[in-house]
Write a structure and sequence with these properties.
The structure is a homodimer.
Chain A: H1 20-39, E1 43-44, E2 50-52, H2 53-56, H3 62-67, E3 70-72, E4 78-81, H4 86-100, E5 104-113, E6 125-134, H5 139-155, E7 161-167, H6 168-177, H7 184-191, H8 194-210, H9 214-224, H10 230-241, H11 245-263, E8 271-273, E9 284-293, E10 303-308, E11 322-327, H12 329-338, E12 351-353, H13 361-373, E13 378-380, H14 387-397, E14 401-404, H15 407-412, E15 414-419, E16 425-429, H16 433-442
Parallel strand pairs in A: 1-5, 7-8, 12-13, 12-14
Antiparallel strand pairs in A: 2-4, 3-4, 5-6, 6-11, 7-9, 9-10, 10-11, 14-15, 15-16
Helix pairs in contact in A: 1-5, 5-11, 6-11, 7-8, 8-9, 10-11
């Protein structure tokens, strides 16, 4: 071949390849999420990566609009890549709920694209993993949302995590009592900064931006400072919102969340009322959920959501109230890596069968096939390289067992099974190999 | 709310939503493929949906280039959506095999985009599901490719399917003997039309386009007409290519594929030598695979692949030979639908627990949680609607069982378990509900 101009292999800034270890960890995470969602009756849906731009614009806010991957397709259509799964779901619901009926419970796992500033460590392509129940205002659906999150983190192997819950209506009740209802957006915006800037600066902002009196600002801050165990906190909150319909509904909602979790056998310590969480200011209208890893609180919430009044008002006049949450796949994977919960190697199955020579190919295939028939995943090394090289490959890839069936073993009717972690070798009869491997893997 | 301008909810032409039943069927198919791939040691990878256009251009041919979703991003980069998973894998391999080592076995499931003519019933967004072994020329890797395909179709529930195998080198050997090697591309192109236009027209094309003499054309057609059981066919092929290195390598490769499948316990009728398959003219260089459903031969191959000499020569000077195949997800799903192998409803779990009133919420949550603890998926109906409405919902969604625990049942310490298929109702003790449901589902 003559000298050839090659193209430099590279990915776009803000995009990334997933190598096997990372891809396996992500696949396990997503498979677990899907299994949990299905176990609560959520069914998968999918929507196109590309949509008409008019579908995607307008709801996400100016910043999101600027981040759109938007272009004109070959047919002259103004199109864009979806930047979240919520707007496509709203469009989907408007289009299909007549066929699907309500209530409708869906999960959706898919890539989304945002032209983010990569200096903030953000990626421009990432996966979202959402579940929602629409077409019902039942508190049971809110309570099950918390149970889904709980089950998910348990199944992922987390022992120390806390689901913080709040209800927007409690705050609404307080603001009604303080005569600040008209300025609730400004109040919530100020309150949302409490952890970052402290109560004094929040008081200043309440006065400046929400026109609150000193007494009103003090009332808001007194409320936000309330802490305590769930039942105590609930008892302290109740009088602050008494007599307001919203506040009393909010208190009942929170009490229901606690009772529901208790009835389902959730450890009470894993659910924490927290009146300071105030996410999705202009979106959530009832229960709000955030999930924190107790060992890594600094990374923020890894699964968040809440109840909303109307999903799809941009596309249909049918009101679609609902509740749902979104798993932060990337953030959670980073956390699992930091907590050493991720296998760093890329083996997708536990056993490597070595290769001796071309003539022993059928024997090796028969052996591998037998092990697979017993439910054990097996990779067959394809080339008759030196055994040492094959063992090095096995160690690098992270196999648990190496099965060696060379001419000497074959003659004796044996195989050698090597545990890579300890270099321990077992000689077992050829006929017992599946059983022996299963036993060694179960240890 | 005042009258509001709504946006018409619609998808782009050539794109589609997946509703739950279709999404579930697709997810099951892909999960099965992934499990099979992993069971042979293939590990997942992922690459970005968007790449620099220069990476994607040039290899796919003019038609593919025209179909690219290509645009300039906000940073002024010339970018495009991937149109297959092979070119991204080539780029990935060039970039990462130094870190990953060889042999390298990967699978990749992901969406690809092509601005196809939708009048041909094609979609512009579809999923590919590929597996490849690179960095080895071992016939064992070819043999395992056939075994992966076999295992996959078995696990998907197909009983009647045939993996047709050929080897490009057999044809090369024949052309060498016929002194047509220099015109192999034109010969293969003509041969590829055999099923469509018949031997006479192929003979004309061989003469016209490949400059073949009457004797040469007859030799090619005699070869292509060879049929027979695997061993007979192999015996008939051998003399036609004898004395050519390529032809003898091809015959050995086909004999190896048969022997390997036999050693792994594959039913001999499922593998069929077929010298007429000639896919990927300018790409495949050794073994070639196509998979046909015996009950729907007309839909064409549902899993195709083969061996290639060099995956990534556009991006690296390192030669990367390999072998792999691609599952036709859409075509296969359509076939499974036609063969009534797909559940047409969208229930993602088998049991619906009905809802009576707000007060019984905690009881219902406890019941659902108990069933889930026993490994049974449960949806809880969220609203206290009439039982008849809840049963209608259950029937439409396709649940297998409905568990009813109303006030009467609760008082008696019972629950009612209804089989939707037969309307048969069982009254079981509250404490036995998980066991009873598991038993009824196992029937």
């Amino acid at each position: 071949m003559s000298a050839k101009v090659r193209i430099e292999p590279r990915t776009l800034r803000g995009f990334r390849d997933y190598l096997p270890a990372a891809a396996l960890a992500r696949e396990r995470l997503i498979d677990t999420a899907k299994a949990v969602y299905k176990g609560f009756g959520f069914a998968p849906i999918d929507t196109p990566a590309l949509e008409y731009t008019e579908i995607l614009l307008g709801k996400g806010g100016d910043e999101t609009d600027k981040q759109l991957y938007r272009f004109t397709d070959n047919g002259g259509r103004d199109v864009a890549l979806r930047f979240d799964l919520t707007i496509p779901f709203a469009r989907f619901a408007a289009q299909h709920t007549n066929d699907l009926g309500l209530p409708f419970k869906r999960y959706h796992v898919g890539s989304v694209w945002r032209g983010e500033n990569t200096q903030r460590g953000r990626y421009r392509e990432f996966i979202q993993c959402d579940f929602d129940t629409i077409g019902t205002e039942s508190p049971l659906a809110d309570q099950e949302t918390a149970l889904v999150i709980h089950e998910l983190f348990q199944r992922l192997g987390f022992e120390r995590f806390t689901i913080r819950v709040n209800d927007r209506r409690v705050l609404n009740g307080l603001l009604e009592r303080l005569e600040l209802s008209e300025r609730s957006v400004a109040v919530l915006r100020a309150l949302d900064k409490l952890a970052k800037i402290g109560p004094e600066k929040v008081a200043e902002e309440l006065t400046r931006e929400a026109g609150a009196s000193a007494a009103q600002a003090a009332g808001v801050l007194e409320f936000a400072a309330l802490t305590g165990k769930n039942e105590e906190l609930l008892a302290r909150l109740a009088p602050l919102v008494q007599g307001t319909a919203a506040g009393e509904a909010g208190i009942a909602s929170l009490a229901g969340l606690l009772a529901g979790a208790g009835a389902a056998g959730v450890d009470a310590a894993r659910i924490a009322l927290d009146v300071s969480i105030a996410r999705g200011l202009d979106y959530y209208t009832g229960a709000i959920f955030e999930t924190f890893l107790d060992d890594l609180p600094g990374i923020g919430s890894v699964c968040s959501g809440g109840r909303y009044d109307d999903l799809a008002s941009l596309y249909t006049k049918q009101r679609l109230p609902g509740v749902g949450a979104s798993l932060g796949v990337d953030r959670l994977l980073a956390a699992m890596e930091e907590l050493k919960m991720v296998d760093e190697k890329g083996a997708s199955c536990p056993i490597l069968v070595t290769c001796f020579d071309a003539a022993s190919g059928p024997d090796a295939l028969a052996l591998a096939s037998e092990l697979r028939g017993a439910g054990l995943g097996v990779e067959l090394y394809p080339d008759p390289k030196k055994l040492g090289d094959q063992l090095k490959y096995a160690a690098r890839r992270g196999f648990a067992l190496v099965v060696i069936a060379g001419p000497a073993e074959r003659e004796a009717g044996n195989v050698q099974v090597k545990l890579l972690a300890t270099s321990e070798a077992h000689v077992v009869a050829r006929g017992d190999v599946a059983q022996a491997c299963a036993r060694l893997l179960a240890v």
